[in-house]
Design brief:
Helix content: 40-55%
Strand order of the largest sheet: 3-2-1-4-5-6
Order of helices and strands: HHHHEHEEHEHEHEHHEHHEEH
Number of strands: 9
Structural class: alpha/beta
Shape: elongated
Largest sheet: 6 strands, parallel
Number of helices: 13
Distance between the termini: 40 Å
Radius of gyration: 32 Å
């Protein structure tokens, strides 16, 4: 990916200054001419500040005037310079302003300001690095699940599909710490790395892990030989689409009903039965209790199918019902959506 780049007017008009910089230059030069004329009349023609200011303005705008200041030879040369430079700089400023409005740069600038405000308000969100086919699908699933997220990609054209969806996005290189800082990595809860380049994915994971060691990172790898590298770079989970695709095809051939059931409870939005994670906080009423006396099935109609104990990397699919639950444990629960939402509020 290329170095950090910022979306907006700076990308317009290759080969010359962008319109925002030309606008700033034109405005600065015009102000410089005005101030120069005032100072010149005050110092060379013994004019007062008010007289010099008035004479400079009417000279630049060529509105016709009687000489309010008696000009000597130096004054006439100064006036000629003020006319030439003043009219020229004002014309340049006017043309640049028209270009700024006609080409939509003002709306673009307003959009950038709005985007920066949205970025500053991000909290407990997901970050998606790379917006190809995989990144697009990740974004769609997160959006359907109502999870706040932001998308990063170097290709502005790829990000056009998220405009108007409410999804924040950044045109930039996710290997650059400044881009991840703009994406509020300090407040993110997860990061998905989905570019088409394995080396780039590993570097993004390493950069993010250095910035946020506790951040949960999922990396997509095309070549299975790079899985170990991604893990060593800090990826908590590594996804190899070819391997997963092969396993899914084999599972569909041997256990199609099981695969269909898992698809329903993990992806479908038109049924009430879902799988959900419940992370126990220190204040959860389940801390110190066992699964046997927690009463999840009786009170909520939910079943715990797995537990990842605090400090462990892998979940236990046959949890001991007599082991006391601890803060930081993650329960994988299956049940009705409404009841699982209630469990999250009351017991998480």
């Amino acid at each position: 990916m290329s170095s950090f780049s910022d979306p907006g007017p700076d990308r317009v008009h290759v080969g010359r200054l962008p319109v925002t910089r030309r606008l700033a230059f034109a405005g600065t030069f015009f102000v410089f001419v005005v101030i120069g004329g005032i100072v010149g009349y005050v110092t060379t023609q013994d004019a007062s500040l008010a007289e010099a200011s008035y004479f400079t303005i009417i000279t630049i705008f060529a509105v016709g005037f009687d000489e309010t200041i008696t000009l000597d030879a130096t004054g006439r040369v100064l006036t000629s310079g003020v006319i030439l430079l003043g009219v020229g700089s004002f014309t340049f400023l006017t043309i640049t302003l028209i270009e700024f409005f006609v080409e939509g740069h003002l709306l673009d600038l307003v959009g950038r300001r709005r985007m920066e405000r949205e970025l500053a308000e991000l909290d407990a969100h997901m970050i998606i690095c790379g917006f190809g086919r995989v990144g697009l699908q990740v974004s769609e699933d997160l959006r359907q699940a109502g999870r706040q997220h932001i998308v990063i990609d170097t290709d502005e054209n790829r990000l056009e599909s998220v405009v108007g969806t409410g999804v924040a996005h950044i045109v930039g290189d996710a290997t650059d710490e400044r881009v991840l800082e703009r994406a509020q990595i300090a407040r993110a809860t997860g990061l998905a790395v989905c570019t088409d380049d394995d080396a780039e994915n590993v570097l993004i994971a390493l950069t993010a892990k250095i910035m946020r060691p506790e951040l949960f990172i999922v990396v997509r790898i095309k070549n299975t030989r790079n899985v170990t590298k991604a893990q060593q770079a800090g990826a908590d989970r590594v996804i190899a689409p070819t391997e997963i695709g092969g396993r899914r095809i084999a599972a569909l051939l041997t256990k199609p009903e099981v695969v269909d059931f898992l698809d329903i409870v993990t992806h479908s939005s038109d049924i009430d039965l879902v799988l959900e994670e419940v992370t126990l906080s220190e204040r959860s009423p389940l801390v110190g209790r066992t699964l046997a006396n927690a009463g999840l099935r009786d009170k909520y109609g939910a079943n715990v199918v797995a537990i990842r104990r605090a400090g462990k990397d892998r979940p236990t699919t046959r949890p001991d019902p007599m082991v006391a639950l601890q803060a930081g444990d993650v329960l994988v629960v299956i049940g009705a959506q409404e009841e699982l939402s209630r469990i999250q509020r009351q017991l998480g």
